[in-house]
Structures are given as C-alpha cells and as structure tokens.
Amino acid sequence: MRQSELFTKTRRTAPKDEVSKNGRLLIQAGYINKEMAGVYDYLPLGLRVLKKIENIIREEMNKLGGQEIFMTTLQDPTLWKKSGRWDDKVVTDWFKTRNDEFGLSNTHEEPLTNLLKNHILSYKDLPVYVYQFQTKLRYELRAKSGLMRGREFIMKDLYSFSRTPEELDRFHDKCRKAYLNVFKRAGIGNKTYLTYASGGSFTKYSYEFQTLSEAGEDIIYLDKTKKIAINKEVYDEESVQTLKLNREKLIRERSIEVGNIFKLGTRFSDALGLKYVDKSGIERPVIMGSYGIGLGRLMGAIVEVLSDDKGIIWPVSVAPFKVHLVELKKGLARGLYEKLTKAGVETLYDDRDLTPGEKFNDADLIGIPWRLVVSEKTKNKVEVKRRNAKKVELISHDELIQQFS
Ligand code: ATP
Ligand code: MG
C-alpha cells in the first residue's frame, strides 16, 4: 500500500487523554481512534493487525476441532433469568437497553447453551466445540488500559460441550497447549505463563495466561523454571503445595491476563436444560467449558511488551505489513515496490513528500518489522534494517526479493 493514500496521519505527540502506553502509541501511529474511555475504532493499520491476530487464533481453534459461528449482540433476558445472571448484582457490568428489554452481549454462555438444545440430543452428537469472534459490551469501571480494557471489545470465545468430565479434561488440556501456541505465535510467548487462578463454580482453579508487564492489572507468583504461576487471588499454602512449587523460588510479578480457560461443568446446561441421552438411554446434562481471548487485550499487550521510546516493534506474525519501504527521493522506490508487491511481500510504501527525518520517525513509530530505504546514496541497492536493531545491511533487489518472499 502507498502511504500517500493511507488516510490516517501519525501524530507528533501522544494524545493527552490516554494514559496507557498501548493506547498512546496506537493512537499516535494511527492504528486506532478513541471514541470514549474504553471505546476504540480500528483504522486501516489497526484492522490489519486485528485480522492477523484473529487468524492466528482461528487456525489454532480449528486445529482443535472448533466450529466457527457468529452470534448476536442483542440478547434475550429470558435466558439470563434462567441462569440467575440477569440480576445486576450478579453480573455488575451489564449494558441493557431501555426498560431492560434486551441485554447487550456481556458474554454468550446462556444463548449458546440454549441454541444447542436444537442440535444436541444423544451421545452421538457430542463432543462439540463452538467458537466465535464477537463483540462484548461491559461497563468496565476502570477503562484506563487502552485496548486492554475495553467497554466494547472483541473476544474469541470458545465453548466446549462434552459427555463426561474426562472428555472435558482432555479438551481442556489440548486447549491449554493451543493457547500457549497462540501467544507464542503472537510474539509474546517468552513472557506469557500458565497461571492458576480462581475457578468459579465447578473447579477450585482455572487457568489464566498471564503476560509479564508493568502495565498489567494482575499480580502473580511465578516459578520461572517450571513456567507456572499462581494468581495472587488464590495464592496460599494450599495452592503452592498442590502445584508442588517452592515458595522461595516464586517471584512476585505484575502481569496482563491475555486469556483464560474455565471448566464450567453443568452450571449452564442445568440452568437452561441442555441434556443428552447416553448409551444406556439415560438423560444427562452436558458438561461445559469456556475459553476466552480478548483480541484487543492481546494487541494491547503486544504493544506494551514490544515497544521502545520511539514506537511499536511488531513481531512479523501480526505486523500490519512485513516491510516498510521508504524512499528518500520521489519515485525512486516505485520499481522496487512493484517487485515486492508482485512477489507477495506485504509492503507499506512511503512515497510521501516528507523529510527523511520525518519518514524515519514515522517508520519507528508505526513499527513495521523491516525498514527498507532507497535513496540516491544506495544506488541500485536497498538499505535493510530490522526495527529493533541498529545494524544496517546493503543488499541488491534480487537478494531482497529472495529473502522476503
Ligand atoms: P478481567 O478479570 O481482566 O476483567 P475477565 O475475567 O472478565 O477478565 P473473561 O470474561 O473470562 O475475562 O474474558 C476472557 C478474556 O477476554 C480475558 O482473558 C481477556 O483476554 C479478555 N477481556 C476480558 N475483559 C476485557 C475487556 N474489558 N477488554 C478487552 N479484553 C477483555
Ligand atoms: Mg472482567
């Protein structure tokens, strides 16, 4: 894409009404726009990142046998009354429409459990794994963390429907690995740890995936060698012993919850009447699990972890473009842009009429992994530099195409 045609502009300074680093950088570089606290639009660059994150997650969920659907944002209160979660004292961050006529998707356990009653009858219909990328609306009190705590945000939520606790356990295990894969592929694997947290209704513990960062809202106690952590909320002698950890080896860290997985048991299938008939003809409640990742939360976390005082440093896997082609004289890099495009290399081509300094600052701020500079000085070669490195390499067009396609 030609940068001269990109309608978004970078800003010289960070927005004053945004305190989080991810929010400031993403707004300054033109990835997102802030409507209100916790409410953000995705602009062309931001949407490209979001879609890449979405695709990584989709691939991992499909490998698990997940089937993608897309549910509604408007929800029927009747279903929520059955589970007892329509009550504002039970779910405190609801958005509801006038006269409580509809709920605005806080989460989707109730409507999905109800939906599956039309499709699950016998043990032959199970297990089933269903997921979506869908908007959640929550009245978050402290919406000060940029994309990491939206009042409107996109979540990948997967729900598992199994026959037995063992079948749930097996899927839960596989999902745990898939989640670690997602965070690894998204570039924050070396900072993200499986964390034991409070379990809710069915089990003592649930799993969270926590990324070490000063911007996080959670505190965990981490064993770096075993790569296991305990969330402060359940950190006690019992949890330490259950996990066979050594209190002395645990370090206290601040972290961001980028995902979580829960065993729900029969909490929702009982409430909404989702049952199946087993092999011997007996009717049983379906056993459920839920598995969430906030896409904005993950995108924000990547920026928190991978950035410096000049801007963002995207990992290639989620970067809006793979290379940022910067020409220092009008039209000099047009030929190379065409070659790169033909070779299928995602390229942002800075063909704007700006000074080299302005272009370099923008390139650092936007944070595309590779910067390619073409100037009169580089002749028929290209200057290649990794966003987070100092080293500059001068290579030929052919070598470049070979290396990047
Ligand atoms: P938190 O404790 O951070 O509020 P939660 O327990 O409410 O999270 P879930 O409802 O289980 O989270 O949502 C699953 C995932 O969705 C979380 O792990 C997180 O990645 C993401 N998420 C939750 N709330 C938000 C939000 N307000 N903005 C962006 N992502 C969110
Ligand atoms: Mg919450």
Task: Set down the secondary structure blueprint.
Blueprint: H1 21-28, E1 32-36, E2 39-42, H2 44-63, E3 67-68, E4 74-75, H3 77-83, E5 103-104, H4 109-116, E6 128-137, E7 152-162, H5 165-185, E8 192-198, E9 205-212, E10 218-223, E11 228-231, H6 237-242, E12 251-265, H7 267-272, E13 275-277, E14 283-285, E15 287-294, H8 295-305, E16 307-308, E17 311-312, E18 323-327, H9 334-342, E19 347-350, H10 356-366, E20 370-374, E21 381-386, E22 392-396, H11 397-404
Parallel strand pairs: 3-6, 8-11, 18-19, 18-20
Antiparallel strand pairs: 1-2, 4-5, 6-7, 7-15, 8-9, 9-12, 10-11, 10-12, 12-15, 13-14, 16-17, 20-21, 21-22
This protein binds adenosine-5'-triphosphate (ATP) and magnesium ion.
Residues 107, 138, 140, 149-150, 153, 155, 257-260, 292-294, 296-297 line the site of adenosine-5'-triphosphate (ATP).
Kindly describe this structure:
Helices cover 28% and strands 29% of the residues. The chain folds into two domains: 306 residues, BirA Bifunctional Protein, domain 2 (2-Layer Sandwich), CATH 3.30.930.10; 84 residues, Rossmann fold (3-Layer(aba) Sandwich), CATH 3.40.50. It has 405 residues and is an alpha+beta fold. It is elongated and about 80 Å long. The site of adenosine-5'-triphosphate has 16 residues, from strand 7, strand 12, strand 15 and helix 8.
